[in-house]
Amino acid sequence: MAKKKNYLIGKAEVLTKLTPPPKMKMDKVSLYTWEEVVSRLQHQFINVSNELKMLDDDLCPKDYSVTKLTLHPSFISKGHFPKALFRQMGVHSIGSKATEVTPDKWTKKGEPKTSPSTSIYIAGKREQLASFAEQISSMTLATPGADDCTGQPKLDTFS
Prior knowledge:
Shape: elongated
CATH topology: Alpha-Beta Plaits
Helix content: 25-40%
Strand content: 15-25%
Radius of gyration: 22 Å
Distance between the termini: 69 Å
């Protein structure tokens, strides 16, 4: 019968401690000016809000509706999830799916081309989306959630 060998591991106590991940410096690149963000998103939120107002109340139980927000392809990492924007809007994420979009601008060199991205389905009351459409013009970069808008999300009605 073979003799079982027990190996000694030098400095094994290091294996029992939690080791934090290496620090990464993530420079946030703003693709759009704040004025571009406000004008484009306000238009999109107003359109979506108007479409949601036209829906029959039977389709929106307790005034809740589902809309789709598509992230810019340059901002689809977990570190760019727009949770502060969702909190400001008064909505919550209920799921997502992969999609492809062609952005107007991007962080890579050359002309933007169709790239993989993520569409996040958000649920909230119709009146909350309507009030956010009005609030967006008075937002500044210091407003909670404004940071999440500089990647230029795109809002659509759920289809």
